[in-house]
Amino acid sequence: MAWIVLIASAVLEAVWATALGMSQGFRRLAPTAVFAVAMTLSMAGLAYAMTSLPTGTAYAVWVGIGAVLTVVIAAVRGQEKLTPLRAALLAGLIGCVVGLKAVS
C-alpha cells in the first residue's frame, strides 16, 4: 500500500509544481488553490509512505517521478522541448526509480 500512496503522491508533486508555475507568484487564485491542496496531499502521502519505506528511497522515488511528470506536462503544454536526449535522460531517471523499487 505504501508504494501505491507514494506513486500517487509523486503524481501530486507534478500537479503542485505545475500549478505553482501557473500561479504567477501566487497572484492567480485557482492555480494557487490547486497548488495548496495538491502539495498538502502530496506531502501527507509521502509522510505516510515513509512510515514503512526507507526515507531515502521514498524521497528519491517521489522526487524522480514528480520531476519526470513535471517535465512531461510542460512538454505537452508546449512550455519545454522534449528532445531525444532529454527523453533518454528522463527514461534513465525512471529506470533508477524502478531500480530502487526492485532492491527495496
Largest sheet: none
Q: Specify the helix fraction band.
A: over 70%
Q: Separation of termini? A: 14 Å
- Tell me how many strands there are: 0
Quickly describe the structure.
The protein is mainly α and 104 residues long.
List keywords for this structure.
single chain; 104 residues; mainly alpha; 4 helices; 0% strand; flat
Note down, in words, how this protein is organized.
It comes from Streptomyces hirsutus. InterPro entries: EmrE-like, Small_drug/metabolite_transptr, Small_multidrug_res. Pfam families: Multi_Drug_Res. With 104 residues, the chain is mainly α. It contains four helices and no strands. Helix 3 runs antiparallel to helix 4. The longest helix has 22 residues, at 55-76. The two termini are 14 Å apart. The mean pLDDT is 95.
In terms of topology, how is this protein built?
Elements: H1 2-22, H2 29-49, H3 55-76, H4 84-103
